[in-house]
Structure formats: C-alpha cells, structure tokens
Amino acid sequence: MPSRKATDPGEAKALADIEAYGCHILHVLEEGDDPPFTYSVGIEHNFKAPELIVIGLKPEISQFIINEYCSRVRSGEVFQPGQRSSGFIEGFDCQFGAVHIEHYREHFGWDLWFYDGVNFGVLQLIYPTVDGIWPWQTEASDWFRTWQPLLDTAPSS
Predict the structure, then answer these.
(1) 157 in a domain, yes or no?
(2) Are 103 and 151 a contacting pair, CB within 8 Å?
C-alpha cells in the first residue's frame, strides 16, 4: 500500500476498506447542473487494474457496479477502453471509456491523496439509455450527454 498514514477517521476508514475489500468507494452528490458520481480508490494498488468512475446513477447502483468491477478484476478479468461488457447493469451492456488526466483533480481527490499524485489509471463505465442510445450517438439528448459526460478528452475551458 502507498505509505499512507490516516490523519482523520475518514482516511482511516478508506485505508481499512482498501485493505479489507480491495477498494474504498466514494459518492459525490449532484451539485447544481453537475451530475452525481461514484469512484473507487485502491483497485489499481491491489489488483493492477484501473480505478473506476460511474457518473449519473444512484449511489447504490454505482456502488454495486464498482464492487462487481472490483470482484471481476480481483479474479483476473481485464477491461480496456472501448470494451463492452455485461453484468454491471441488468439487461444492458456497458462500455468502458478512458479518462483523461485533466479530469483527475475535479473527480478523484481521494485517489490523488492515496497515490500521492496522478500516477494511477481510471476507466469510466458508460451506460446507454433504456432505449439503447449511447451518449456519443447523435440521437442522445442534451440532458443525457450532460448527465453522463464522457471523460476521455480534456475538459473545455
């Protein structure tokens, strides 16, 4: 484990979860027009697989997804950007996307603390609408694109 010493109860909980379960999961609530998101800390350290972020879903669904991802990478499954996979959201395939490093400071504060900087990878789990529309398709609504922004490019200034 990176040489982290807990300086408060939140950090102690994160380190204990990473050791006991393979990762710690954080939920960030929606704020204004920004959607909620959930992300992992510790997966890359424990399993040499990227961390995971899920944007726009309820915390309990996102937590299930991250726990499933952690379990699957623990058992040796490998996920890559552009790869589709089932078993994360019932009845739907999801796709993994790359996350540009310019999003790290805004979305991954606890990973920055745990890894002592930006030396870690992250995948975004991307899901379609109930009609099977992906956020990059022209048929996707502006609301859906805003609610599930793709993090594979640097944010626009």
Answers:
(1) no
(2) yes
3 found inside a domain: no
Taking the whole predicted model, whether its pTM rises above 0.85 is answered as yes
Q: Is 1 part of any domain?
A: no
111-144 pLDDT, tens digit per residue, is: 999 999 999 999 999 999 999 999 999 999 999 9
Question: What range does the domain containing 138 cover?
Answer: 9-147
| Residue 155: inside a domain | no
- Which residues pair with residue 28 across a beta bridge? 37
Hunting for tokens 């899901």 — which residue is that?
A: 127
Residue closest to 65 by CA, chosen among 103, 31, 92: 92
Residue 3: band (very low, low, confident or very high) from pLDDT cuts 50, 70, 90: low
Q: Are 36 and 30 in contact (CB under 8 A)?
A: yes
Count of structural domains within the chain: 1
Write the CB contacts of 151 (distance below 8 Å, at least 6 apart in sequence): 53, 55, 97, 98, 99, 100, 103, 107, 122, 124
Which residues sit opposite 24 in a β-bridge? 41
Cα separation, 38 vs 119, in Å, equals: 20
